[in-house]
Amino acid sequence: MTNTNRRRARPANGIVLWEGESLYDGAPIAIIVTGIISPSRNVKVGPSMQVWIVRTDIDPVQAKKAGYDGSICGNCAMRNGACYVVVVNGVLQVYRTYKAGKYSSLPDTDVLEEVGLSRWFLRGGAYGNHSAAPFEVTQQLIEAGGHNGWCLYVHDWKTCDQRFRHVAMASCETVEQAIEADRMGWRYYLAILEEESEEALAALAAAGVKPSRCPHRADDPRTPLCVDCRLCDGKRDDNDKRAHLWNPVHGSGAVMKGFHRMRASLPVLAA
C-alpha cells in the first residue's frame, strides 16, 4: 500500500487504496474505493462500495479515446465499444475527485480500517481490472472490507496472477473461454448473446461445465441483487463446487452493437 502525504479535513466517502505502476504497461495508476459511508445504489448490485482503477496522469475519457485505457483494462476484448461502463459519468467524477485530493489517503492500516468499518457490500472492478496491480492489494482489500460479501471479475484470467481465481470470476465471452477457465480452476461468468444461448448452454453441458443463470432479473423486483446473491466471489478452494454463472448480454443499443462487433471476431462454438 502507498503512504502519501495528502490529508483530509473531514471523513471522506472514498479512499486511495494504492498508487503505483500498472503491471500491464508501467503507467501510473491508482485504485480508489468509494461509497464507504454513503454507498452506491446500483440497480443490479445494490448498496455497495465501489472499486475503481484509473490512470493518474490522464482523465479516463481522454485515456479511452487515445487507447491508454489498456493500462487499467489490459487486452480486454470489451474495450472496443462493448464495455457497459460510461466513463464520462462516474469514472470521470472519481478521477476528478482524486486529483482534487478529496479522497482519504493515509497510512496503510488507517486506510484499510476505514474500509473495514464500512457496512456495505464490496463491488470490485466498477472500472478496470484489479490484476493491473499486485494481487496482494486486492487480497488486503477483501480481508479488510469483504466481510459483507463482494463480487469481482477479471478479463485477463488466462495470464494474470492465478491467485485471483480464489477471489474473482473469470469473465468470459465464448464457450471456449468458459471451458478453458473451468479447466484452469476458475469459476466463470459467461456473457451470452440471447440468440446463441441455447446452443452455447448445450455445448457447455456436453463439456461438463454447465453454468446456472444469474438469478437477477431487471424486470422482476423479487429476484436478488448482487448484495443478496454473493455468488460472484471466485473459487475459494478446490472443494468449492458452486456453479459457474451465465447471463444474456444486456446494455444500451451502442453497447449491444459493440458487443456484436467484438463477438464476431471471436470463436463462437467448438465443433
SSE run: EEEEHHHHEHEEEHEHEHEH
Number of domains: 1
Estimate the helix proportion, in percent: 25-40%
Please identify the structural class as seen in this structure. alpha/beta
Distance between the termini: 47 Å
Basic shape: globular
Gyration radius, rounded: 18 Å
Low-confidence stretches: 2-10
How many DSSP helices?
9
List the helices and strands and how they pair.
Elements: E1 14-21, E2 28-34, E3 40-42, E4 46-55, H1 60-66, H2 70-73, H3 87-99, H4 108-117, E5 121-127, H5 135-145, E6 150-151, E7 153-154, E8 169-172, H6 175-183, E9 188-192, H7 197-206, E10 212-213, H8 226-229, E11 245-248, H9 253-264
Parallel strand pairs: 4-5, 5-6, 7-8, 8-9, 9-11, 10-11
Antiparallel strand pairs: 1-2, 2-4, 3-4
Explain this structure:
The chain is of the alpha/beta class and 271 residues long. It has one domain (14-264). Helices cover 30% and strands 20% of the residues. The protein has nine helices and eleven strands. The strands form two sheets. Strands 1, 2, 3, 4, 5 and 6 form a six-stranded mixed sheet that branches. Strands 7-8-9-11-10 form a five-stranded parallel sheet, covered by helices on one side. Strand 3 (40-42) and strand 4 (46-55) form a beta hairpin. Helix 4 packs across helix 5.
Structure keywords:
271 residues, alpha/beta, six-stranded mixed sheet, five-stranded parallel sheet, 30% helix, disordered N terminus
Task: Summarize the model shown.
The chain is an alpha/beta fold and 271 residues long. It contains 9 helices and 11 strands.
